[in-house]
Amino acid sequence: MLAEERRLLIVDWTRNEGRLDAADTALKLNVATETIRRDFDILQRRGVLRRVHGGAIAMERFAHEYTISERQGLNPRAKRLIAETAAQYVPDEGCVFVDGGTTTEFLAPQLRNRPNLLVVTNSVILASKIADSSTKTYMLSGRVRPTTLSSVGARTVEDLTNLNAVVAFIGVNGISPELRLTAFDSDEAAVKRVMITNSAERILLADHSKFGSIYPATFGSPSDFDRLVTDMDTDTRAIDKFADKGVEVVVAG
Questions:
Q1: Cα-Cα-Cα-Cα dihedral sign, residues 106, 194, 164, 210
Q2: Under a CB-based contact definition with an 8 Å cutoff, are residues 51 and 44 in contact?
Q3: What domains can you pick out in the chain, each with its CATH number?
Q4: What pLDDT score does 68 carry?
Q5: CA-based Rg of the chain, rounded to a whole angstrom?
Q6: Which residue of 61, 105, 159, 166 could cross-link 213, Cys pair, CB 3.0 to 4.6 Å?
């Protein structure tokens, strides 16, 4: 295989898988790990991937924010299974926080018709799916971002500051190899932080595609969460890293 053919494969794999490990890639391609590291360096200079410790991630996974329709089409089965599994942690009564996201949206059927439950959310889509049921729904005020249809900004944060929840269900855009939990927008990250701070229990919902991706705004780390709900395709090494931080990991499916 020619060097350029190998590099084209590497680019395709990073785009499809999110993150590549240098040693694993070397085994797949039957070349030395140092050869793959040189390929990573060359591809980083070309601007198509970014070197990280032990491997590389595609630049699209570092900076691109998908539209709602694009995100709704990404791993819908995994997201549905994650939400259905996470629903067992919804209390019968009290207040829950649910932030905006295409994974948390799948919680909607499990949140309907619970008259003793108050759902506080910044997601226009989620609120619209449960507000006509007997569940009490509180839509946070603020500016609505068109790419996510979630309210954000100073008013949203102020709204949340005086509220407390039994449990918060939080989504994530990307989890870096160093386990930084990241979002594309700093205002959305700020909302997530307040939800985390003001909740007795914090549950992170993340499918396998979120691991190895990194976005501009960091909002937390594994130690901020009591539980991670993910799917069966998540790399066991990533699961072990969360477990090592004392996070209970629940695998859906």
A1: positive
A2: yes
A3: 3-63 (1.10.10.10), 68-252 (3.40.50.1360)
A4: 78
A5: 19
A6: 61
